[in-house]
Amino acid sequence: MKACLALFVLGAAAHSQQRLEVKIDPRIELMAVTQVLADYGWTGLLARQDTPYRREVDAWFAPFKQHAAVKRFAELARAGYTFDGPAGTMICLSAPPELKLELHPEECGAQRAGGEASLEAWLEQLRDFARASDFGGFFRAHAGLYALMEEATRKKLVRDYAADLEAYHGIRQASYTIIPTPLLVGNYGLRRARPDGRFDIFGILGASGTSDGVAQFGSVETLRALVWHEFGHSFVNPEVERLSAMVEKSKKLMDPIAAKMRASAYQQWRTVAIEHVDRAVAVRLAFRELGEDAGEQALANERASSFAYVGALADRLKEYEQHRDRYPTFRDFAPRLIAVFDELAASNLPAAFYEIPFIATINSVLVGKMIYVVSSGEPDLAAQQKIADYVKTIRDRFAKGAEIITDEQALARDLSAYSVAAYGTLTGNKWLAKHRNSIPAVAALEAVRDAGPLRLIAALPNPQNPKLGAIAYTATDASAVAGINSLFAGPTAYVIGKGTEVLKSGDYRRQDGVWVLK
Prior knowledge:
This protein is of the alpha/beta class and 518 residues long. Helices cover 47% and strands 16% of the residues.
């Protein structure tokens, strides 16, 4: 009997994980190839890893860099057809090279692509590109590599996260597909409606690093976050959009967080409200499924990202959880939840409400007013110059206008109003050398047994203002500092890597008022 029960449980687990399909999609990969050829890197959305796959893409498609589809996409991107817009179009299409539009153009991003005629013109060019370049042949030739990436990602899905969403919202969706995308970075949640009102839900999953030259796609934790957050949009968005008139009444709440939201491509209050609601649900799922500590960390992460109203929404969601007899579905509770925005808008929130505490994650530092500190004491002067040049490119991409100063200038300045990004070795950058003992992750770096050179990206409190943070971008050799941002980092306190391969990552905890390794 026990053996039968064990087989039943294992079978149920396998079945539930199968609902989360993992598949590299030829439509999305065709889009990504076009973006590579169109020099889409200015958006920060192209993977920077130098992998054999990327080199094979460059070699195969180089003769088509001037193709009309590539040129037209570059124009559309400069006009705003970026982030999730192109992928939202691709999931509306049949497989290449036919790329038949299977839904109404307005459901497939036509407005963002310049209108229905503009979108169809580009799709016709893209069909020709797929045929002329033999994209199908390229895709088939890499079937084995794609299968390897899919299986590695599938192994990190340790439970049926879609079931968590369905139970919480009280409805089921048609299907769930995670689409690893080795040429891109960033994650998007997309959906395609079926006639019965349910959705086929897609999670576009960008590369987070490499292992043995093969793109990797996050960890158990990041995949869980992808499903809960990105797939969660397909449950949340329709309900918030249904109540858009109610949401609009509280649009004054956008003003205190507008700069941070727009820097993340959230331009309108309705979009920001949707993000808040979706993130509040993910926070409650963390509390319920992972425990109090995980829930508190999830909530702190959202506040650190300037989603200031998530806490109030999460508190209201407790009412929903406690009264499912009265509110069987999320749809039933949505008006009561959206009322939180009205209540906050009427309460004249003080400036202190919007203060962002340092929570010891890399991402939490990046939301502040940045200043960059470069080394002046590297023995390898050529490597030191490369660091300085590299930091200029990073600054121009992510914080244009921010100051770049030397370590000696940093030591003489009051940096208490800044989030500091310091680049260099722990000896060659004098600012890092002085504050080395404030970086808990240094102990983790020293424990790694690898010939290196090793890279470390680590958060630390700003020494002049512990409410703000700093990030050390350092390495065991100065030659490994330039290019360090290609090592995936963000949701944790530190990442240790070799090249673009993540070897170790982790968090800190507070002990007697000091941050230490967790």
